[in-house]
Amino acid sequence: MKLGIVQGRLIQCPPGKLQWFPQEDWKSEFYIAASLGLENIELIAERSHNENNPIWSNEGVKKLVDLTKRTGVKIHTLCNDHIVDYSLVKNPDVLSQNLRLIERASMLECNKYVLPFFENSELNMENYESYIHPLNIIADKCREAGMIVCIETILDAKDLIFVLDKLNNNNIKAVFDTGNRIAFGHNLHDDIILLGDKIHHVHIKDKNKENENVVLGTGLVNFSSVFTALKKINFQKSYTFETNRGKNPIRTANYNIALTNYFHEESFEEN
User: Fold this and answer.
1) Which of 237, 251, 267, 241 is nearest to 79 (CA)?
2) Is the pLDDT of residue 271 over 70?
3) Are strands 40-45 and 77-80 parallel, antiparallel or unpaired?
């Protein structure tokens, strides 16, 4: 079982910041991840452009590559949070930003490009047609770079399958985020079964009734049911923690790893 973590979740963040680039500590996070036995770190491009994020410079990319070699912690995935604040369909500059970012990700040999379609880029059943053209441009660019586009939406499994069929591009797959989907009232087990091999990336998180990201096992997600469903669809790719840091991010990460391994083994091993 390969486990990764979203960038910044192993470093204590400023108050009120959950999705957060770890600023001057971004290098040390790779060494922390290695000490915990994590296989990869999912990089983030922030909502607002940050020129200090190493993904945006050739020198920064070289440093990232060097860190992966030194620590053994890989980079498979890049998530573009920029679209959460800036609409992909209303601003041509956002499409250009994606194409530039894909070029940067290709330099790191990433194989997954995550697009979270929330807030200003919310993709729903009323507006999905406006996303078909830009998403196909992004997907074709990713294909050239050896990456698969993984989209995360508010849609339940049935509607997401409908939209994926309308996109009609085999280089576009789904992100399954356990916390976000439970927050929208979805049946996680049934959604996993319906989506099947359309799931290409899994975010592990837990949320409570107030839609707050909480420590795994203290919210609404039934992880036994989740991993039972993932076994049924024979999901064999890595899992990425997009988790609450708790009071101590490293202690919390160790707990998350143990909990996830427990439910994975309970669900995947034969009795």
Assistant:
1) 241
2) no
3) parallel
SS3 assignment, position 151: strand
CA distances from 215 to 1, 109, 122, 190, 248 (A): 21, 32, 26, 23, 11
In the chain, the amino acid numbered 71 is T
| Amino acid identity at 2 | K
> What's the CA gap between 3 and 14, in Å, rounded?
25
Average pLDDT of the residues in 40-69: 97
What average pLDDT does this structure show over 180-205?
Answer: 96
Q: Which domains can be identified in the chain, with CATH numbers?
A: 3-268 (3.20.20.150)
Residue 103's H or E segment, with its range, is helix 92-107
Q: Which amino acid is present at 27?
A: K
Q: State pTM to two decimals.
A: 0.96
Mean pLDDT, residues 147-151: 98
